[in-house]
Amino acid sequence: MSADVYPKRLKILNLDYDLVWVNRDIETATDSHGSCDTSTQTIVVCRDQKPTAMADTIWHEINHALFAGLHMTGELTEERIVTLMTTGQCTVMRDNPDFVKWMLKKLNGGTR
Ligand SMILES: [Zn+2]
Which of 6, 9, 39, 87 has its CA at a distance of 20 to 30 angstroms from the CA of residue 69? Predict the structure, then answer.
């Protein structure tokens, strides 16, 4: 997966998420740079961002998918939240090695 390719699928826990890339219009429509629909397993990301911001947005949406997939609630303690998110994030990184490489390129300012 080169730095210029936009990933299309992610394994998040036991589910396959589709990644949908959109232009800036989504920001006007939703006032956000991305969204995560856990009922359809779809993550939408605005591609009109600098690479580091794009990486931040995707990871943010992955965390929403993990929050749902791990059946988390706002009632959990900080330690429980950190424990569950750590497990989820490690699993996402293990199951998506090409995506991790792509993320690192973006976080280092790689091409859009
Ligand atoms: Zn959010």
Answer: 6
